[in-house]
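Q: Got a minute? One more chain.
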Amino acid sequence: MIYQSFLLAFFCFLFLLLSSIAIFYFLSSKNKKYVYLWTLGENGSDPLGSAFKFLRYILLFVALLFLFFSLARPQEKKLFSKTSQKGIDILFVLDISDSMLIEDMKPLDNRLESAKFHIKEFMKNRPNDRMGLVVFSGEAYTRIPLTTDHGLLLGNIDKIYISETMKKGTAIGVALASGVNRLRSSKAKSKVLVLLTDGENNSGVIDPLTALDLAVDEEIKCYTLGIGRDGQSMLPIFKKDRYGRKVKTYRPFPTKINEELLRKIAYETKGQFFRASDEDDMTRVFSNINSLETSEVKTPKTYKIEELFQSPLKVSFVLFILFFMVELLFFWRSY
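A: Always. Here it is, folded:
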């Protein structure tokens, strides 16, 4: 239990001062006498009355004691959270270009939905890891920085869609550099980047090999995952008809994964390249990544301060009621 030291010292001093003055006043008063309503003996003597007189002083003293104690604001410092667990820092870099809408990852809707589903399942199975998410198409941005708040992560992943406002294309170099920048300040023993894409680098101002050098320098292990099949695919297109209804149509769309680049990124960072052309492949890939080594991650201690003045204040209130009951029922003053 802790107290606010200045207030405690001040109110304790004030209590002792007022108590001393009160005791001195009552003991030194010669012109005051107390007449008990039930006086039975001569000259107003009554041992029972004297006992109630003493009780009255005790009630007043203890009531004041609890009152000043509550004014000093006693507090309790409770440890709210403290974790020292083993985990690694994992950053997912997810392609959200238009081609991720291609519907070749049944039973899920498309490549993007498949990636989102498996990332969420992966997160649920690794509660001790810090994770984050970068999304990219022709440019990249951090959707969620590294955090142990997996509820926040899962909620945000559900809200990821193909962006109509981001630059079109697939900027693997920019995405990789953005991910490396996010992991740069990590203190974890193992820093892992998982790059998921279904295309080849065709946009962005940073060359993928330049970003790869940055990853090597920062000792970031990169796992690269190529999603979908190469060749001609059908890309869904959503348009509104003359009645304002959304209608889905398809148009031919060639896709090709730059396997050579993804293998090079994985090899030079001591990671691994995976290819997933269906849901079974996706399950296998994330199962393999799940076997990563762990390192210790410490979460800073946080404390919760709980106010405890209510209990002594209630006791003081009850004692004051008892004091005034004794005063009114048994005594009256005359001078």
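A: Residues 154 and 264 are 30 Å apart (CA to CA).
Q: Perfect, thanks.
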